[in-house]
Amino acid sequence: MVALWAMYLNIPDKPLFDEMEGGIIEQYQQCLLPLRVFLPTMGIVGYASDVTGKNRKALFFQLAQYILAPVIIEDSTDYEVLIGNFTQQSSLEEFCRLHNVEITHTFPNGIYLMRNLR
Questions:
Q1: Where are the domains of the chain?
Q2: Strand 81-85 to 72-74 pairing
Q3: What stretches of 1-118 adopt beta strand conformation (E)?
Q4: 44-49 and 81-85: which strand pairing?
Q5: How far is CA 113 from its chain centroid?
Q6: Among the listed residues 7, 8, 83, 14, the one whose alpha carbon sits nearest the alpha carbon of residue 44
Q7: How far apart are CA 103 and CA 52, in angstroms?
Q8: pTM for the whole thing?
């Protein structure tokens, strides 16, 4: 229920999927599916990204929530387990340093599973 409410609050005026180039959704899905093995079966995990553009960032976040349900994903670093979507290695390194986070697993195309050390 909380996941549905969070998604509802972030629904744009027009579908974000219309802005995606063909194949990107499927590619992102294939990158995220291996995370399931390492995520809790239920509960909440955090999410962090350096993807630019409000709509594009929101789209990738919503796709992650959809693909990895029933796990609830919050756009927050306040959780022990975090999913990262980083396009730049330097952004990832800076994020980890600033938020005291370590990478536990690396997946293709800039997807990371991380652990909050706080």
A1: 1-7+39-51+67-72+85-118
A2: unpaired
A3: 44-49, 72-74, 81-85, 101-107, 111-116
A4: parallel
A5: 9
A6: 83
A7: 21
A8: 0.79
